[in-house]
Design brief:
The protein is 19% helix and 32% strand. The chain contains seven helices and 18 strands.
Length: 353
């Protein structure tokens, strides 16, 4: 497969095809895919940012977010690290089909979950499962910069066989005097008895790893139940909310909202899709994507949280109010684009969809 991608201006990101140059098995169900522009170029990104990949599943394009796990100090190549999720259409497609020499459609980098936005002298990185990937990008950056930064990383895995980046974590900890890595496993692997800390995340675990956790800048990524547990524990420990940062990708599909109203039952606006010719009404307090779903119209989407950028659409006429989570660049907003999952109408709209 071939693709052409132009060199963008510095920091502009990319929207096009990336060439896979290598596939690395990380664990029994996690693989890293090394990607680079089909035409040699370097792209700026921040440690912790993600790409949105779109792949053909059963002949239909499907999009998902994957964090860049590599360091931005090597911008000529990007690495994403993907866990095969049972029933996950994109993760399974990547594991089964993407090989060196193939291309994949990508948009990004996107997101503000990054140490770049929250510089500090001391960090606490908390992760579970494949949630370690954005934190690994940050940790690799600290290590490659030889930065004088104190980092404690506490990673939770189901078994020793599920520890992502296990050998590299040991190496970084051994080589960087201000980095400490603590791995916690729930249970043993079939071929290994775990001798380290066990169980699910607890406040005592966090305090043992970082007694000064309330004074650190905290980054957390993992499954929703883990994130909720960590949120409660950090609050109990007295960590200031403004110093606690989270990243998660929800893949729930859009549901028909109870707040969608038609003309005559409240303030609503007409939304016209120029290319398909379809129209629907959207309440002033309802995201456009949800109103479209309620009208039986399926538009491209993935995270539903303003993170992934999949539902990015050009607003040809009208005005929206948008509260996103980093899934769109300022340049794109200035060009008139909006994320429909987190945009509510301020007047009648015409969309390029």
């Amino acid at each position: 497969m071939t693709a052409t991608i132009a060199r963008p201006e510095t920091g502009s990101g990319l929207a096009g095809s990336l060439l896979c140059t290598g596939v690395v098995d990380v664990t029994h169900d996690v693989r890293s895919f090394v990607l680079r522009p089909a035409v040699p170029a370097a792209y700026d990104f921040e440690p912790g940012q993600h790409l949105t990949l779109t792949v053909p599943v059963a002949g239909e394009p499907v999009s998902r977010c994957y964090t860049i796990s590599s360091s931005p100090r090597r911008p000529e190549e990007l690495t994403i690290t993907v866990k095969r999720v049972p029933g996950g259409p994109v993760s399974n497609w990547l594991h089964d089909h993407l090989r060196a020499g193939d291309t994949v459609v990508a948009d990004g980098p996107l997101g503000s979950f990054s140490t770049t936005h929250h510089p500090a002298a001391r960090y606490l990185f908390l992760s579970a499962g494949s949630g370690i990937t954005p934190l690994m990008s940050m940790l690799r950056t600290v290590h490659e910069d030889r930065a004088d930064v104190d980092v404690v990383l506490v990673h939770h895995a189901r078994t020793p066989a599920d520890i992502v980046f296990r050998d590299e974590l040991r190496t970084i900890e051994a080589e960087h005097p201000s980095v400490r890595v603590v791995v916690v496993c729930e249970t043993d692997a079939a071929d290994e008895t775990w001798t380290g800390p066990r169980g699910r995340v607890t406040l005592q675990q966090l305090r043992d790893a970082a007694p000064d956790l309330a004074e650190r800048e905290v980054f957390t990524c993992g499954p929703a139940p883990y994130m909720a547990a960590v949120r409660d524990l950090l609050a109990e420990a007295g960590a200031a909310p403004e110093r606690c940062h989270e990243e998660s990708f929800s893949l729930a599909g859009p549901e028909a909202p109870s707040t969608v109203v038609g003309a005559g039952t409240g303030t609503s606006y007409a939304v016209k899709l120029r290319r398909s010719g379809r129209s629907f009404r959207c309440a002033e307090d309802t995201p456009v994507l949800m109103a479209a779903a309620a009208a039986g119209i399926t538009l491209p989407s993935s995270c539903q949280e303003g993170v992934c950028g999949t539902c990015k659409t050009l607003v040809l006429a009208g005005r929206v109010e948008m509260e996103h989570q980093g899934g769109i660049r300022p340049r794109e907003v200035a060009q008139g684009q909006a994320l429909l999952c987190c945009s509510t109408p301020c007047e009648d709209l015409v969309l390029d969809a």
